[in-house]
Design brief:
GO molecular function, one term (chains A, B): DNA-binding transcription factor activity
Largest interface: A-B, 27 and 27 residues
Shape of chain A: globular
Oligomer: homodimer
Strand order of the largest sheet of chain A: 1-2
CATH class of one domain in chain A: Mainly Alpha
CATH superfamily of one domain in chain A: Winged helix-like DNA-binding domain superfamily/Winged helix DNA-binding domain
Number of helices of chain A: 5
Distance between the termini of chain A: 37 Å
InterPro entries (chains A, B): ArsR-like_HTH (IPR011991), HTH_ArsR_DNA-bd_dom (IPR001845), WH-like_DNA-bd_sf (IPR036388), WH_DNA-bd_sf (IPR036390)
Radius of gyration of chain A: 14 Å
Structural class of chain A: mainly alpha
Protein name (chains A, B): Helix-turn-helix transcriptional regulator
Helix content of chain A: 40-55%
Chain lengths: 119, 119
Amino acid sequence: MKPLFHPDIDDVAPADIFAALADPIRLGILVALSDATEMDKARCSNFVGLASPSLLSYHFAKLREAGITHMRVEGTSRYLSIRRADLDRRFPGLLDSVIEAAQRDPSLPRVPEPAQAKG
Amino acid sequence: MKPLFHPDIDDVAPADIFAALADPIRLGILVALSDATEMDKARCSNFVGLASPSLLSYHFAKLREAGITHMRVEGTSRYLSIRRADLDRRFPGLLDSVIEAAQRDPSLPRVPEPAQAKG
């Protein structure tokens, strides 16, 4: 499998970042990731409630190619995380204010809570 | 002349804001406006160095329809300003971090300084 492309954060222009954020589903993914304290929550398969698998793949790629997220492939699972350290270094304060703005949007698509494995 | 449409800031979704920011020319306009201390600098005709008149009109409309800027028509002149109070109320911190991010982009189109009218 070809390794996934992740741009050097210094090559990312602000307009690329904003283009990647210009979609409610991608903002919904970002908000869910910002809240993911458990590794399991960031499993790509947890986002199936938001869009069809092919559309989700498209949105994941958009976020990754803009330098916003990192995707890790482990066996048959894919895990997403926000490139917080990179983003905070290159654009201080931007990520937090974007997430806060997105959280204020009542119409933003919400990722369903993953089912509890343990009772 | 039909009055220009300016959306209620509470009707603006974060994704609309980011879509309007997803262009280097519009970010360049925003950075120039953020720096406009003199009224004359915000005259729309000062932006002619950035793009053709019809393209500029398109970009001005995108920014205005996303709730980011206000356009005032006075005689044959049009004046642009950032809706800072509205944006800061609805999305605290977002505008400043967007402008700071845009200012860090060395490839951002810069608006030429207006010619000094007085020596």
